[in-house]
Amino acid sequence: MSLKNKLHDLKEHYKGKKMAPAFNAIHTFLYAPNEVTHKGSHIRGVDDLKRTMNMVILAMVPCLIWGIFNAGFQHYTAVQGAAAPAFTSFVDHLQYFFTWDNFILGATKVVPILVVSYLVGLVVEFIFAVIKGHEVEEGYLVTGMLVPLIVPVDIPLWMLAVAVVFGVVIGKEVFGGTGMNILNPALTIRAFLFFAYPTWMSGDKVWVHDAVARTGTADAISGETVLGMLAQKKELSYSIAEAFFGYIPGSIGETSTLLCILGAAILIFTKIASWRIILSGVLGALAMGTIFNGVIDQGWITEGSKFYALMSLPAWQHLVIGGFAFGITFMATDPVSGAQTNKGKYWYGFLIGFFAIMIRVFNPAYPEGIMLAILLMNVFAPTIDHYVVQGNVKRRLKRLKVKTA
Amino acid sequence: MAEVIEKKASEKQSEPLFSKKNKGLMTDPLFDNNPITIQVLGICSALAITAELKASIVMSVAVLFVLSIGNVVISLMRNIIPSKIRIIVQLVVVATLVIVVDLVLKAFAYELSKQLSVFVGLIITNCIIMGRFEAFALGNGPWKSFLDGLGNAAGYGLILILVGFFRELLGSGTLLGIKVLGDPIEKTGLYALGYENNGFMLLAPMALITVGIIIWIQRSRNKSLIEN
């Protein structure tokens, strides 16, 4: 008897009993279910929720693989001084990047984070499914993948576990589970980590493996992100090209803008992510960046100001550094917590980009403005939708009046 | 209003001091009619001062004093207060009692009074107090009002202390200032294992979430509390 049949028998055996959702979940996780998703905001023709989720995960896989190698690459580069010669071109640099050493070190750091993220999150989901007596929802599959990509490589695993429990319970289950949450669960988890354990989520030590442990010793290394350097007005030790391709320290999966663009292409092509949000988000960031550049050009902010370095950064370069590209691609486009109307999506995306750069510049203590900008706009998304819908109603009423008059 | 009429009827017969109904006045606000978790009153102070257990306890005692005495005073004056100016009269009573509390704190626990800062003064605006004056003391005798004040203040204090307990334990790793989880700097106790304090617990949003979790647990244990 095949595994599928065995699972099916188990499922039938436990039908109507308390543990039924747990067995159903294992069954549907491994094999295609016979039903498609028929309600909630994930409904989309013949697609089922699992297919949607799988596409998103697929789009993130390149970022994850890059993140694994980058964890090793950043560590060895910092430890050995210059393991690789100075950056010349993307392709030339790949031979120093895709090495076994990098992979092994990266995998030993990243895989446990991935496992903890999924294990803890799914256990919480299973418990809630059993208590509430519904099927286990696939929502966590994407969140579980996002979480490892947006945390620093050296994050203690127990902190991650605590944050995942918090994020899934408070960020999602209290609102009624998948499809009902106000905030993006992955960002709720990251925000929790940031406010609860700021020493592990910001600064110049946490982004490269081993940097924290070596603090104060003769072998001390530092791994400052580009944003960190700008905030402290230090000389940048990375070129914008390096930042674009992702040869820089940062949260595990967000360093490569190139791969985020690839992910965005997959999601837009499969019509899962809204191109309206991504496009307007980029425009919003450019608008804010241009305003800051203008302020610098006018001479209102002098070089002595602590905002000078971040403000004078050319607007387009803001798109490349930090987690902006990752956030706008994979988290701003979350169909549940984002705006639902097409017109609303433009506003929603634009304001995310706008606020992300504003927070980045004015409060460099926050490691990345995009996290707070998305969470903020998540809260306002229903308001935006409300006004779009009301505007539409008003316009049509007016048209009706003109006709009848 | 139903409560008031009922009370007037029952006042005519002499009642034992701790009759079942009188006991209910004290115990109801502890759980099934808790001012914070059920009526959602007095939230501001619950968020503001619960980062430490000590402050929560002092605040609870202060409110206990103000509410029980204030209820008795209002109840004694209930037949001579013109209804048009009753709010002003109530405010004067609360303000007087709060000033007493504030001065006592300043005299005997100066550090703590600095820490509680404006929140002792803000007991005046605590909705629970004005709420009980309006809803209960104005229509009931002094003894009942006293019990009602005690009960409601205790219900408020219970939640405050509960929230304060978790916030101080998880946020600072201490209880009443005693390092129960070990020393975070010398790395003893739990900290030797790599444990770290959760700084988020010390911020106001986490107090709101903690109160929310208490409400959640309470309502899922007693389904009759869930509104439609």
Molecular structure report:
The complex is a heterodimer of chains A (405) and B (228). Chain A has helices at 3-13, 20-30, 49-79, 90-97, 100-132, 139-149, 157-171, 185-196, 198-201, 226-231, 240-245, 257-269, 275-298, 308-312, 315-318, 324-331, 342-362, 369-404. Chain A contains 18 helices and no strands. Chain A has 405 residues and is mainly alpha-helical. Chain A has one domain. Chain A is globular. Helix content of chain A is 64%, strand content 0%. The relative contact order of chain A is 0.10. By secondary structure, chain B is mainly alpha-helical. Chain B has one domain (57-218). Helix content of chain B is 62%, strand content 0%. Chain B has helices at residues 2-12, 20-27, 43-48, 53-77, 86-108, 110-116, 118-121, 127-135, 142-172, 204-221. At the A-B interface, helix 7, helix 8 and helix 9 of A face helix 10 of B.
What is the compact description of this entry?
The complex is a heterodimer of chains A (405) and B (228). Chain A has 405 residues and is mainly α.
SS-based class of chain B? mainly alpha
Kindly estimate the percentage of residues of chain B that lie in beta strands according to DSSP: under 5%
Helix content estimate of chain A: 55-70%
**Helix-and-strand structural type of chain A:** mainly alpha
Average of pLDDT of chain A: 81
Quaternary organisation of the protein chains = heterodimer
